Amino acid sequence: MKTRNTKLGVIAITLLSAAMPFTAKAQDKVKASVGADIVSGYIWRGQDLGGVSLQPNASIAYKGLSLEAWGSVGIEKTDADGYDAKEFDLTLGYSTGGFSVSITDYWYNTGAGYFHYGAHNTTHLYEAQVGYDFGPVAVNWYTNFAGDDGVKENGDRAYSSYISIAAPFKLGGLDWTAEVGATPWETDFYGASGFAVCDVSLGATKDIRITNSFSLPLFAKATWNPCSERAYFVVGLSF
After folding, report:
1. 89, 113, 143, 187: least buried by Cβ within 10 Å?
2. What is the DSSP string of the chain?
């Protein structure tokens, strides 16, 4: 998640990671997966969270209930002394049909240790998500409800929220996704003083065939953040 850009953790059974909710149909058998991405930059919800990064993931799902672990670690120096911050997210989710709901625990190794959960002494961030995939378009709402959330100008907790609308389509033999994301109210978490569009993006994927039975997905994404007046273009490979 917060590739700082953007960019939350849970107590009972640390719930997880983001950026991204589950949309799989309910199944009768346990399904598990493991993989990793290498990306030229860590851009999350219009925010720059780091440079070249390795991002592993693992998940298990049964009858619509899923648990996913996701991480990110920079593999290039960001200054003379250190590397990009490391991130470890856990997401517990449930989906049925197009409906999905989840709770994510984001954790970064830039402050208190992992087992610090105090309101003013934690780098965990807890986010709730609810969404619906209509097919031609998917709508998701995210709200930080605990942990290291942003604040308003007066110092009050912002309950930082984010809404995204994404539309997949095919063009020129590639799979594309167009997305717009915005925060509905003031929060320094997204650098917004009120309602603000912070992510306008267009991404495409293509399978790079290695052998007759093996290929690697290559993806590229351009992102514009009208709120911060910044733009990014990243490319990555999935394994």
Report:
1. 113
2. ----------STT----------PPP-SS-EEEEEEEEES-EEETTEEEESSEEEEEEEEEETTEEEEEEEEEE-SBSSSS-BPPPEEEEEEEEEETTEEEEEEEEEETTSS-TT--BTTB--EEEEEEEEEE-SS-EEEEEEEEEES--B-TTS-B---EEEEEEEEEEETTEEEEEEEEEE-S-BTTTTBSSSEEEEEEEEEEEEEEEETTEEEEEEEEEEEETTTTEEEEEEEEE-
Tokens at residue 209, please? 């065939």
114: nearest Cα among 124, 104, 126, 127:
124
Domain 31-238: state its class: mainly beta
Residue-range domain boundaries for the chain: 31-238
3-class DSSP string for 86-103: CEEEEEEEEEECCEEEEE
Residue 92 to residue 117: CA distance in whole angstroms: 18
Residue with tokens 């569009």: 197
Tell me the two tokens of residue 72. 């990110």
pTM of the model: 0.85
Chain segment 118-148, per-residue pLDDT in tens: 878 899 999 999 999 999 999 999 999 999 9
Burial of 218 (0-12, 13-18, 19+ CB in 10 A): middle
